[in-house]
Amino acid sequence: MLKSKASQTSIEQRNTTRMRVLDHIRSRDSVSRIDIASALQTSPATVTSATADLISAGLIKEVPGDPPLKSSKRGRPRVLLQLDGGSYLVAGLKVARHAMSVILVDFQGTPLASYNHPLADAQMTPEVFVRTIRDALQEASAQIGKTLEDLSGVSIGIAGLVDAENNFVHWSSSLTERNIDFGQILPKEIPCPAFIENDANLVAKAEQHFGYGKGLKNFLVVTIEHGVGLGIVLDGQLYRGERGCGAEFGHAKVQLDGALCQCGQRGCLEAYVGDYALIREMTVVDQNQNPRTVADIYDKARSGDVMAASVLGRAGQMFGLGISNLINLFDPECIILSGGQKGLEHLYSDEVMTRIRSGVVNVDTPLPEIKVHHWGDQMWAKGAAAYAIEQVSILKVKDIPAHAS
Amino acid sequence: MLKSKASQTSIEQRNTTRMRVLDHIRSRDSVSRIDIASALQTSPATVTSATADLISAGLIKEVPGDPPLKSSKRGRPRVLLQLDGGSYLVAGLKVARHAMSVILVDFQGTPLASYNHPLADAQMTPEVFVRTIRDALQEASAQIGKTLEDLSGVSIGIAGLVDAENNFVHWSSSLTERNIDFGQILPKEIPCPAFIENDANLVAKAEQHFGYGKGLKNFLVVTIEHGVGLGIVLDGQLYRGERGCGAEFGHAKVQLDGALCQCGQRGCLEAYVGDYALIREMTVVDQNQNPRTVADIYDKARSGDVMAASVLGRAGQMFGLGISNLINLFDPECIILSGGQKGLEHLYSDEVMTRIRSGVVNVDTPLPEIKVHHWGDQMWAKGAAAYAIEQVSILKVKDIPAHAS
DNA sequence: ACATTTATTTCAGTCAGTAAAATATTTAGT
DNA sequence: ACTAAATATTTTACTGACTGAAATAAATGT
To answer: What pLDDT is stored for residue A225 in this prediction?
Structure first.
């Protein structure tokens, strides 16, 4: 059995089915071979073969217990398959203004450790940036007695314009320089495969793997934090646009020559919905009022301040208009409004939903579902972890040899 | 060699390469085997095999003459391949308010006949609709001495909400009834495969196969006629949304509680850009003025009417705003403004382009190309023909037997 | 004529996927 | 308990798409 002869079928082709099987198991948590076969429109024999390979590679395993749901009375019971959580350790890391947050998860996405690394400067040189990432990862790994070498993959979420396929960052607010090829500099400090991606896209990945997007093919994820972000998943794939600078929903124009936005343009949705926009409005009305946070404005509105209520109300109306435009354009299965914290009730109110409904061109069919998801602080890092798991899966499946006869 | 045993590989799987080769040849007009191999990342041997099958099926042929461009000095010259135009006759048909327009084309898309069939009523029952289609197709076929039986496929473009994959029309302004399953009733009158699709999507197909979208992977096609339509092509595929009712660009809201639209909602782009909207504006200003067409408004504007110029100007501004939002969301390679007639200069003016540019969130990279395409009357029918060719291709490739050893 | 270059085809082999048959594991009925 | 029926999975034998390497084809340069 000389191995010298090169394989006769391309790796890509050889592994599409195994990859599809793995993805399907991931999206269903646990599923039997028969169900995989019918879902992927393939024969049971193929599934037996693919799952055998995935099991021997340590990526999946049979669920030990009895099948919880009997689909029918008689017959051999189906054996459930699920990801083998223990197989690989991966990390997700989100770079924010004042901190990097890291989460370590197993191959199923179960959190094992998390760590918050404060940042002295919001902007760093690429070299400092990469070293800081390494330090943060080391710190997190140490919590569970692991080292960087134990990581099978890391994903880094960053605000800005990222060409994820090439690990290239055109521009980011966290970096002092433009056009950085992280494919070159990450390996110098980090001894495992590392992937960099736009943070809004990673939230979409979080929803797809761990959240409300699980099992869906076409959905949109809107994030509201300082700005308004959008992640687009079409046909199960993240849509990144031609040059990787699409999904700029926060800067969609909702008013001709409208309010001034931080980006320098006018009429952007963000200039009506972003926290800085609300605070600005309030101070324009009355210089003596100076709310520091959106929560302050809430308090005022709740205690009967008409102006505060009006400011929040308009934000909601504009937000609803933007969402209905997304529905009109994409006709998704679901729109997920994804947030780290609570405190954006004015965007999820009944009035906003009414506005959305009244802005969607509706022909018989019901509106797509609109779901609000409060993740808590780790949303961004979890998204990065989801992406890391996905990328590690691809690498590991590629390493599986041809099926043993 | 008994044929009784069922094939061991699924048809879909068996034909992906052949289909990809065929699509590639179509998108390049003519191309050599070597170039196909490198473009599709496959081996020359595979291309030889696939092209041999396509040639024996009559779908493609070798270009007889010498290769026009010598890529290098020496060596065996590459043989160009192209679609075999003579192989199949297909028809595209567009249903408009007052007429059906038919175009017959060969397999390469070369027009062979065209025919305009006036309609007594804008709305028909499904039965009358199908019979009228048959009559129109017969009339067109007769022009070149053919009959319905000579057609290999027909595609029908219609305004409304169409589930093209299932030949199902949820709603159309041309039909008196909703929820019609044309998969059931078309075969009763039309003896060849027939496909029904939304008309804006078909214009996108026209651009993809015969126009500026040729060879592109991600582009948008905006049509301006009575209303504003949008066709979305992502990764070379028409994006239809989850329920087939996406791409409602004409009803994207560009103004909170803005002008009333024909759809009953307020602030739709169409309510600022559509011809009826412009005419309405003019009469509001001065009841004595009553322009019948947009051309009338042009004439006034050109002869110094400030009001007319203002009406057109605002339409342009709103249109530019909408386009820049599309760019922000989709980041396409190209946006094609596709129109049947001339006479929309106010939407293609320098001011509008400036508005677009000022509304796009731009980071270093250049704007996507914005191309204006005046097709003339047959735009819609040509789009239908493009789709018909595509569908016939799929059917014919499916019929190719396994590769002869 | 002959070497060189490039395109295409032929050849022999690999391997993913298949249908059908075999096997495994359960319940229902007696 | 035993058998039949039902359902899930695996095994078997095979098909056929795809491959690299070698052979062949068709041109140009010397």
So the answer is: 80
Q: What angle do CA A198, A202, A205 make, to 5 degrees?
A: 145
**B304-359 pLDDT, tens digit each:** 889 889 999 999 999 999 999 999 999 999 999 998 777 788 888 899 999 998 89
How many other C-beta atoms can be found within 10 angstroms of the C-beta atom of residue A66? Answer: 9
A262 — contact with chain B (CB < 8 Å)?
no
Cα end-to-end distance, chain A, whole Å = 13
Residues in chain B with CB shorter than 8 Å from the CB of A245 are 331, 361, 363, 365
**Hey, which bits of A235-299 come out as E strands?**
237-238
Question: Any idea what the CATH number is for the domain that residue B311 is in?
Answer: 3.30.420.40
The 3-state DSSP class for residue B76 equals: coil
Characterize the bridge pairing of strands A99-106 and A89-95: antiparallel
Residue B401 lies in a domain: no
CATH number, position B57: 1.10.10.10
* Domain end (from A84, A106, A125): A84
CA distance B267 to chain A (A): 9
Residues B253 and B108 in one domain: no
pLDDT, tens only, B182-207: 999 999 999 999 999 999 999 999 99
Determine which helix (DSSP H) or strand (DSSP E) holds A369, and give its type and residue range.
strand A369-374
Full residue range of the structural domain in which residue A16 is found: 2-84
- Tell the residue number behind the tokens 């070293």, with chain if given: A131
Query: Pick the residue with more confidence: B297 or B1?
Result: B297
> Which of the listed residues A26, A60, A84 is the one where a domain comes to its end?
A84
On whether residue B13 sits in a domain, the answer given is yes
Q: Which residues of A89-113 are buried (b: 16+ CB within 10 A; e: fewer)?
A: bbbbbbbbeeebbbbbbbbbbeebb
- For residues B222 and B323, state if they share a domain: yes
Distance between CA atoms of A24 and A59, rounded to whole angstroms?
Answer: 13
What is the rounded CA–CA span in Å between residue B229 and residue B207?
14
Count of domains for chain A = 3
Residues 118-177 of B with CB under 8 A from A: 161, 170-171
